[in-house]
């Protein structure tokens, strides 16, 4: 019966995703990217994955985009840039071939997309295959806070946000 406990399921899924994304973050930082740039990119990716699984984006649309980009990595930057720009203003997204809601809050206002290798896209694709409905929303803040040093966190105002606020 404990295996069905929602808090245990959420913790297991969140740990698995965090592990996949930590590998991606390490790989990006090994390429000389600064932690703030990586954190911003991963936060947008996390939000997009979560939005897909809670049906704010069409079902499996982002997973499909990632699968296509695994085959053709050169398409990753232009497709993701277009998607995030469409999420910022709402309307039709060529990348997903669907009408999207507007996601305000400035997360997608300047969507810097990092060029990823096939292996790096695979880390992201693996994370996308998890059920994001079960992910603890604190993962967003946790990843951001871990990626920034304390001075950067303070200057950006990055701090823990309660689950109810994230879900709202």
Question: What is this entry, summarized?
Answer:
This protein is mainly α and 168 residues long. 61% of the residues lie in helices and 4% in strands.
Tell me what portion of residues adopts beta-strand conformation. Answer: under 5%
For the record, give the distance between the C-alpha atoms at the N and C termini, rounded to a whole number: 30 Å
Q: Topology as H/E string?
A: HHHHEEHHHH
- Radius of gyration, in Å, reads 16 Å
Helix fraction, binned, reads 55-70%
Shape annotation: globular
What can be said about the biggest beta sheet? 2 strands, antiparallel
Tally of strands: 2
State the strand order across the main sheet: 1-2
Uncertain runs:
none
Question: What is the count of DSSP helices, taking H or I runs of 4+ residues?
Answer: 8
Structural class: mainly alpha
Overall pLDDT: 82
Write up what this structure looks like.
By secondary structure, the protein is mainly α. The protein is built from 8 helices and 2 strands; from the N terminus they run H-H-H-H-E-E-H-H-H-H. The chain has helices spanning 6-30, 35-53, 61-71, 76-89, 118-128, 138-147, 150-156, 163-167; strands at residues 91-93, 98-100. A two-stranded antiparallel sheet has the order 1-2. A hairpin with a 4-residue loop joins strand 1 and strand 2 (98-100). The chain is globular and about 45 Å long. The two termini are 30 Å apart. The mean pLDDT is 82.
Question: How do the strands and helices of this protein lay out in sequence?
Answer:
Layout: H1 6-30, H2 35-53, H3 61-71, H4 76-89, E1 91-93, E2 98-100, H5 118-128, H6 138-147, H7 150-156, H8 163-167
Antiparallel strand pairs: 1-2
Helix pairs in contact: 1-2, 1-5, 2-6, 3-5
